[in-house]
Structure formats: C-alpha cells, structure tokens
C-alpha cells in the first residue's frame, strides 16, 4: 500500500499521525488566496517524485497524475514488484478493477484514486457552492464530523488531495498480506445533486448490498470508517443509516478520517480504505478529533472519542458517498 496525503506520503506515517490525532488542515500556501473567504485546506507538502517519476514527466504532468504514479509505484514496491519481477509478469493478468480479480480473471490488481483541486478555480468553485469552512483563524478545528458547530457550511475542512494504491496479490508470490477484501457495492439514488436522501435510503441500500455481496452478517462488523464529511446535511443521515443497518451494537466503533484530513474528493474513498486496513493491521483505531458538541439526536456511544482506541477488528466497513447520490461501501477483514 502507499498514500500521498496531507498527513504523510507513507501509509505507516499517515496512520501514525491519524492515531495521534494530528490535523492536516492548514493555511493554503500553494497560491495567493487572500481574496477568497476560505483560505485553508489539506495541502500536500514536501512531496517529491524523485526516484519514482522521471524529471521530464514531473515537469509536464498535473499533480493528480504525479500523486497517482508515485503512490502506485510505491505500492508496487511494497508488494515486492520490482522492475525485474515486472518483466516476468503476464500483463494480461494485471488490472485495475478489483472485480476482475474476484472473478478470477486477474492475478494482480493496482487500485486507488487521485485528485488535486488545490488551485484557484477549484477553491473558487466550492466557495461558490457555499461548501467550505471559513474557520481561517483555526484551521485544525475546521473539520468537525458529527459536531453541532458546523458553522454555516455544508462541507468543513476545505479541499484535500491524496491517493492510495492497494494490491490484490496472490499468496504464492510471497507478498505481505495486510487484509482480505471481502466485497462491496455501488449504488446511485439520484435524489439530489448535493443533498443525501432524507431517509438515507441510498446509503442503507448500499450498505445492505455490500453485506449481502460479501456474505457478512451485520453482527460481524465492529468497525466503520464513515464518510462523515462534517456536513449538517450528511453526517446525521449517515449515522441514522448506520443505526438502521447495525442497530445499537455495543461492540461497534465508528470514526471519520476526514476530521483530520478533510475531504479528499476523488481520493477520499481510497485513502480511507487504507485507514481501515491499517486499523486491522495495527489493532488501533484513530480518534474523532473536534467532536466537542455532538449533533442533537446522536448517541455518541458508537463514536470513537478524542483518543485512539484498541480494537480487534473482525470486519471493517468503509463508506464513501458522493454528490449526486453516488454511494460505495466496501468491507475488509483480517486475512486468515
């Protein structure tokens, strides 16, 4: 696995920072944003492509491509796929769609996501949507999933960028196996361009289909990495959907990686999947920072507090719900 995030460019560094409750949100330095009402975000800093991407490509490519290439090559290296090994691989058996591997059509998968919108037009677009926090004087407190202090914004935490890659790699090659991908689902409720369905119908359907496709009972799931973008419109609806699907399971723990890195947009699901896998690997789940005054109607017993917690993860669920009602839920478990 590998990541490029506001909290580090290595999956272990990234997760250790999450466990310590470090926020990756800070003042934007990439360009002059003094004319914008939002001047904070989750920037990628101290990033280098040295040794991973040829200089001539580094000068020409957009950042999201550089993030993806660098993280992808690091993930290959982490799985022991050197240039020598690459020469021996049957490229027809290599792919980027996890379903191909589950169907037995592929042996090697490189999967992930990348995004980079930390540019004036990207910031301006989300400002125009009234979707960003204006907590410029206290950036680390901007992203507040499930907290009643959402200010006036739909999405708190500005924009972050990142990528991750994970390999579906056969045991016979001797690669380290971090977790087992059990399955997942994709749904689209098409209720509204930006708002989730009031009853959480699309989210509930997505989670239930993921459980069914994976052959997992709801009692088996004891950790959820929630989508939870720090939006008044979305946080409580997702929480209610989780209660609908899993009940008041006293063993269930729920957190939001976005409390520390904001919304990574096209890379968010991939990076948060790494967090879920790292929870399985380490036996630790990261805190929910900035959860000081929970939203009305929420029972915080399921939510991880301000400090990391020990947890023997049986099955982990990672949720990602995008604009337009695009929903995804995937499940991981310890490899046995």
Detail the topology: elements first, then pairings.
Blueprint: E1 2-4, H1 11-19, E2 26-27, E3 40-41, H2 55-60, H3 63-78, H4 83-88, E4 94-95, H5 98-102, E5 108-115, H6 120-128, E6 162-168, E7 180-188, H7 201-214, E8 223-225, H8 235-246, E9 253-255, H9 258-261, H10 268-282, E10 284-285, E11 309-310, E12 316-322, E13 326-333
Parallel strand pairs: 4-5, 8-9, 8-12
Antiparallel strand pairs: 1-6, 2-3, 5-6, 7-13, 10-11, 12-13
Helix pairs in contact: 7-8
Q: What is the succession of H and E elements?
A: EHEEHHHEHEHEEHEHEHHEEEE
Indicate the overall shape.
globular
- Spans of at least 5 consecutive residues whose pLDDT stays below 50 are 152-164
Strand content: 15-25%
End-to-end CA span: 19 Å
Number of domains: 2
Sheet with the most strands: spatial strand order:
7-13-12-8-9
Quaternary assembly: single chain
Could you say which structural class the secondary elements and strand pairing correspond to?
alpha/beta
Per CATH, the class of the largest domain reads: Alpha Beta
Assigned CATH architecture of the largest domain: 3-Layer(aba) Sandwich
Number of strands: 13
Total number of helices: 10
CATH topology assignment of the largest domain: Peroxisomal Thiolase, Chain A, domain 1
Radius of gyration: 19 Å
Pfam family, one: Ketoacyl-synt_C
Protein name: beta-ketoacyl-[acyl-carrier-protein] synthase I
GO cellular component, one term: mitochondrion
GO molecular function: 3-oxoacyl-[acyl-carrier-protein] synthase activity
